[in-house]
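Exercise: predict the fold of this chain.
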Amino acid sequence: MAAKDSIYARQWRDRRARRWWFYGVWIDGFAVLGLLAFFVLPLIPMAAAGAVFVVAGVAWMLGFVVVAVRLQRFPCPRCGHPFFMGSLSYWPFARQCRHCGLPRDE
């Protein structure tokens, strides 16, 4: 059964959106810090440049933690438990719910 025909289609779209946010914040953070380091920081005084870079880095890390936890805590559409988290473990590549066995994107 295709995910778009599933009764859980809305929840699976939410999981895909969470995954895109995760990868977007992770990869775009590198790009933004790189652009900041090479194009913006040389234009401002050295004393302020370090503070700007640290603030941007901390903001990126906090954003990354938020989207990572949000992806990790994605609730299973069927049982409502965290899809990727078992009783004592976390497996981000799980193909089925760690609690009820619902196949991913089903």
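Check your answer against the key: The mean pLDDT is 87.
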